[in-house]
Write a structure and sequence with these properties.
Shape: globular
Largest sheet: 7 strands, mixed
Number of helices: 14
Strand order of the largest sheet: 3-2-1-4-5-10-6
CATH class: Alpha Beta
Oligomer: single chain
Number of domains: 1
CATH architecture: 3-Layer(aba) Sandwich
Helix content: 40-55%
Strand content: 5-15%
Number of strands: 10
Radius of gyration: 18 Å
């Protein structure tokens, strides 16, 4: 990637080339025009459910959160620091990093985030991803308390991750492809005691098939419910080609264009899945309205 201005992705399928670099600048530069909002949405939702989660699960002062497919750790950055998504885009989106720069900006970034550290941690955050370089950056910046470079879609968790999952309270997935979540979430549940199964937060897009994940919830005794009265803005397409692909996939799943795209944004739901025993504590109606 010799010149990020030329080679930045214009489609979600192309993000592999900016997702696992030693610096997150190309990733954020690519996403900035799309106004990608989900890390902030799910960080806000995580805070909103934090109190009820502690009460329902007796989780203590600092519940344990797993950020699945965390990448550069945006959810953890927002939860552990007094920052907005716009601040992250501003930090990274205006510098022209190249692979030859390596970890040139790590020291300055670490100081920047240390100065903005939240006084109290809302969660103990573990991050899991197949992108080792991105994961290392997130851990070094303090976005994650634990980092796990593993692929639980295809493989059982290692011992350290399994130990973390045994006590996890909330699992968040802000941007992972929907087809990966049933296998990954099933492996998480396989590590948990029946009496202490976690809650899950995620943002299902209308251009992906969520039937397999809904079947998992039914099989495992979970109830999934929307936290929003109306779909929220997920992000803008990166190109006309990507917009056409999003609409085509959504139509194939039976969705109308006006329910998929509005004001230039792809729309998405925000879902909380809980064990049936926890589902009324509190009723989801009390949690709705917590997301902008």
């Amino acid at each position: 990637m010799s010149d990020p201005a030329v080679t930045l992705p214009r489609h979600a399928d192309d993000f592999g080339r900016v997702y696992d670099l030693e610096d997150p600048s190309p990733y954020y530069t690519a996403l900035r025009p799309s106004d990608y909002r989900m890390p902030a949405v799910l960080a806000e939702a995580s805070k909103a459910v934090g109190g009820p989660l502690r009460s329902a699960r007796d989780a203590g002062d600092t519940p344990r959160l797993l950020d699945f497919a965390c990448g550069y750790g945006a959810v953890g950055a927002l939860l552990h620091h007094d920052l907005s998504m716009a601040a992250l885009h501003a930090r990274y989106g205006e510098r022209r990093w190249r692979p030859v720069d390596g970890r040139r900006y790590w020291e300055a970034d670490a100081a920047f985030f240390a100065a903005r550290r939240a006084e109290r941690a809302a969660f103990e955050i573990g991050g899991i991803d197949v992108a080792g370089a991105a994961l290392a950056y997130a851990a070094a910046m303090g976005f994650l308390d634990r980092a796990f470079h593993e692929n639980i879609v295809d493989h059982a968790p290692g011992d350290a991750l399994k130990g973390f999952l045994e006590g996890v309270d909330l699992v968040v997935a802000s941007g992972a492809h929907g087809e990966h979540l049933p296998a990954a979430f099933a492996r998480v549940l396989d590590c948990c005691r029946d009496t202490r199964r976690p809650w899950f937060l995620y943002g299902p897009r209308p251009d992906m098939d969520w039937a397999p994940l809904n079947r998992l919830w039914a099989e495992r005794g979970y109830r999934s419910e929307s936290l929003v009265a109306e779909p929220i803005r997920y992000r803008k397409p990166l190109s006309a080609e990507e917009r056409a692909d999003m609409l085509r996939a959504a139509r194939a799943l039976g969705h109308r264009d006006e329910a998929v795209m509005r004001g230039g944004y792809l729309l998405a739901d925000v879902v909380l899945a809980r064990p049936e025993a926890d589902a009324g504590n509190p009723p989801v109606e009390r949690l709705r309205g917590c997301i902008d």
